[in-house]
Amino acid sequence: xxxxxxxxxxxxxxxxxxxxxxxxxxxxxxxxxxxxxxxxxxxxxxxxxxxxxxxxxxxxxxxxxxxxxxxxxxxxxxxxxxxxxxxxxxxxxxxxxxxxxxxxxxxxxxxxxxxxxxxxxxxxxxxxxxxxxxxxxxxxxxxxxxxxxxxxxxxxxxxxxxxxxxxxxxxxxxxxxxxxxxxxxxxxxxxxxxxxxxxxxxxxxxxxxxxxxxxxxxxxxxxxxxxxxxxxxxxxxxxxxxxxxxxxxxxxxxxxxxxxxxxxxxxxxxxxxxxxxxxxxxxxxxxxxxxxxxxxxxxxxxxxxxxxxxxxxxxxxxxxxxxxxxxxxxxxxxxxxxxxxxxxxxxxxxxxxxxxxxxxxxxxxxxxxxxxxxxxxxxxxxxxxxxxxxxxxxxxxxxxxxxxxxxxxxxxxxxxxxxxxxxxxxxxxxxxxxxxxxxxxxxxxxxxxxxx
Length: 452
Fold this sequence. Notes:
The protein is an alpha+beta fold. The chain has one domain (27-448): 3-Layer(aba) Sandwich (Peroxisomal Thiolase, Chain A, domain 1). It has helices at residues 41-49, 85-90, 93-108, 113-116, 135-148, 157-161, 165-174, 189-203, 237-244, 283-288, 317-330, 348-361, 374-377, 384-398, and strands at 26-34, 56-57, 70-71, 124-129, 208-215, 274-282, 295-304, 337-341, 369-371, 400-401, 424-425, 430-437, 441-448. The strands form three sheets. A nine-stranded mixed β-sheet has the order 4-5-6-1-7-13-12-8-9, with helices on both faces. A two-stranded antiparallel sheet has the order 2-3. Strands 10-11 form a two-stranded antiparallel ribbon.
């Protein structure tokens, strides 16, 4: 009644068939940033390779009475040549960072003003998000409201606090009339923007998308007390808010050693800021104009933990399923991945949840190296995924991985090479950049060197 079934050999694991349609292949042709190390890409990455910490005491407001008095704060920022004087005075710092990073990315892609005059701007779009929006504008408005009443509010108050304004001002400046909006998923924002931008290109909605994230949450400087309140009691509410939810490191005596992902003695993340923007383009369009292709965006994924507003699932289920979806969408097998730029914020729960998820997806991690950009620049919130994508692409192009600094006593569960304290040479095959945000928002981006 029963037939004998001959035992079958285990199938050989082979890489999924890659996308070949040049209209659906998405390549990176430009990068731009504003960072604690300045706005030059090579300077930024060289500082990372050297293991330099950009974390220092806050000097934008009087933080003397705060329990946390340091951050990855932008200093000596210049918008000269990118924003006219009037707008430079009016714009929130988040949107100033966005404009400078976006226009520098376009210049890097050889899409300057002269070239753009002869291009179809109906097929060019902008998708730059922010987790918090115009925090500086909001802070100044609250000061005006309390001290002088609503009639003293700026007419730019509402436009400059809403999170879509980065994409709006960049689209207005460049004349791009394609898809232009923003996504706000806290610290997962930039990777969400890359994912949506790539889908617009693959669906044929656009040929070029400028995408990424921007944030300025440490910028406000109070000028006077508010009706009997001491200046330190005013805002910035953002720093105070993160202190209130016990998310920040309190190593005030050694700020450069405060961000220490995966170290047993980590005690929270360090706030950062800036902007990271990529020019994403269909291979067909890039090839026709003879663009220099920096890397390829193979794909990504987004999903939700559906667990808690701030804490990740300890088993990493949401993150692991996001990684699996990202690999499937990118047509990449786990065996092809050998570098991960981790989200790794330096929080007790988050760091291990991410590692647990990675170990679920990648059964053999012996060839994988994993590092944490936030150990040097802090957590740029909505900008973090953009800044880390640029670090990931530079690793692909240079063959050098920056270290994870402040690795003194590694958690025993972390069995993956975290590139501790000193840079390492490593030929990257396929790289993943992770970003996860408050609310349980998960996003991954998959990059590789461009192969025709």
